[in-house]
Amino acid sequence: MKLIPEWRHSWRFSSNWCHAAQVALIFGWTQIPDDLRASSPRWAEVALSATIFGLGVLARAVAQTGVPKAPADVPPHD
């Protein structure tokens, strides 16, 4: 496995924030009582989770100005 040159700044990536939000959403959803969860339509749960995941994938493909770029001639740190 080869890390990207900016791996030390990966916490700034919008994609990581989206995926962290998805994990938090899933965890929070499991903490809601069953009777309250049953009143929510299943399609809404799936759509929300898929939307956040899709935003994370899209965010990874977009250039982000807040993440410092590693010089191209410097090999990545191991």
Characterize the structure shown.
- α1 runs antiparallel to α3.
- The mean pLDDT is 82.
- The chain is an all-alpha fold and 78 residues long.
- It has a domain of 51 residues.
- The chain starts with 13 loop residues before the first helix and ends in a 17-residue tail after the last helix.
- It contains 3 helices and no strands.
- The longest helix is centred in the middle third of the chain and has 20 residues.
- It is elongated.
Structural class: mainly alpha
The rough form would be described as: elongated
Radius of gyration, in angstroms, nearest whole number: 17 Å
Tally of DSSP helical segments: 3
Question: Unreliable segments (pLDDT under 50, ≥5 consecutive)?
Answer: none
Strand element count: 0
Please report which band the strand proportion falls in: under 5%, 5-15%, 15-25%, 25-35%, 35-45% or over 45%: under 5%
What keyword list fits this structure?
78 residues, mainly alpha, 3 helices, 55% helix, elongated
Structure at a glance:
By secondary structure, the chain is mainly alpha-helical. The protein has a domain at 11-61. 55% of the residues lie in helices and 0% in strands.
Layout of SSEs?
Layout: H1 14-31, H2 34-38, H3 42-61
